[in-house]
Amino acid sequence: MRILSVVGARPNFMKLAPVDRELVKRGVEHVIVHTGQHYDPDMSDAFFEQLWIPAPDHDLGVGSGSHAQQTAAVMQRLEPVIVELHPDLVLTYGDVNSTVAAALVAAKLQVRVGHVEAGLRSRDWTMPEEINRVVTDRLSDLLFLPSRDAAENLDAEGIPADRMHFVGNVMIDTLCWALPQALAVDAPARFEVRGRPYVVVTLHRPANVDDPAVLRELLEALTRLADHVPVLFPVHPRTRARIRTRARIEDLRLRPPADRGLRLLEPLAYLDMLSLVAKAGLVVTDSGGLQEETSFLGVPCLTVRPNTERPITCTHGTNRLVQAQRDAILAAAERGLARHSPARPVIERWDGQAAERIARVVCEGERFELDGAVAAPSHAARRAVAIPQPLGAG
Ligand code: UD1
Description:
Structural class: alpha/beta
Helix content: 40-55%
Low-confidence stretches: 253-259, 372-385
Oligomer: single chain
Number of helices: 18
Strand order of the largest sheet: 3-2-1-4-5-6-7
Mean pLDDT: 92
Number of strands: 13
Radius of gyration: 20 Å
Bound molecules: uridine-diphosphate-N-acetylglucosamine
Strand content: 5-15%
Largest sheet: 7 strands, parallel
Shape: globular
């Protein structure tokens, strides 16, 4: 059996790693294609190394561009690879431009498509990721669901239940695999925050960083917060470019290595980031993966977004939505820092075995049913699904 996995952006790599291990264990010929959507060594190579992912068999080198340019470039360069290799299945991951591009190419070549992390919905069509999710799921033959709410979303869109497999969350597989190494790395000691409450921040969504007024509001909130507690902010390249051009870094009273203050860092490799997050008092983010990782670890998380495609992290985990407003963030951060509890939330099938279930579906034809009630929810049940609201709204 030949399976081709297509990845391109940082959050894809954590999802690929455990799937690759499980497929290889079963003797599958697993071909890895890197689209090159993310190309900086610290956004890509570091993840392959730390997560023991073999070097990609094909690197499409698409780089940056507008959404259409990036998606089109992946499609153009991927098509001949799929034609030549004619895999039994193309696996796509998450919700980035590389994901939807790969699904489109494979589906049009009549090659079966599997989508890892299917069925998540924010219902926010201003997010490019939402468009990518909906289109990818519609084109996929095998949908691998991280949580039960995904089945309700797919059912509402008319996707047949026999395509869905409730396998759990592959991000958590990688977290479980890496946590002992991450704790040994002891990044808090390196950043001189060990044994004290500190905050870890990531922000990169266009809605938060592309509008100078919103970005300034967020940076103001973080500098105020940093008057009370160390704030470590590994900065995504998109955000760094915006800060440089629009926010006047010198206005932010930044203090390089010190025991307090807002510290802007280069993007961190996976183990360093996990090491910091695992011991943080609070995480402030707009990333999807961090909402899940903090929930699993029991670390309070504030997500600076009006909605989330991962509501289970609010209903069953430690995540709270907050508006991109200085005072709302400061008030929520104070509550979050006080909220730390030693008990970790337990979320169904976030157990480190999601990739094994995927491999059993793909290689052994097993099914991971949702059980009747969830596969075909009533309209009343569908309406009853809680939609988290951001703190500070109204
Ligand atoms: C992409 C994903 C987003 C994901 C994020 C994780 C889409 C639509 N968005 O957003 O869902 O959460 O990755 O990081 O696919 N850049 C570099 N070096 C790199 C990569 C990017 O400098 O290695 C810069 C470029 O200037 C680029 C910008 O960052 O234009 C944005 O990169 P891009 O991949 O288009 O989207 P992200 O914002 O990273």
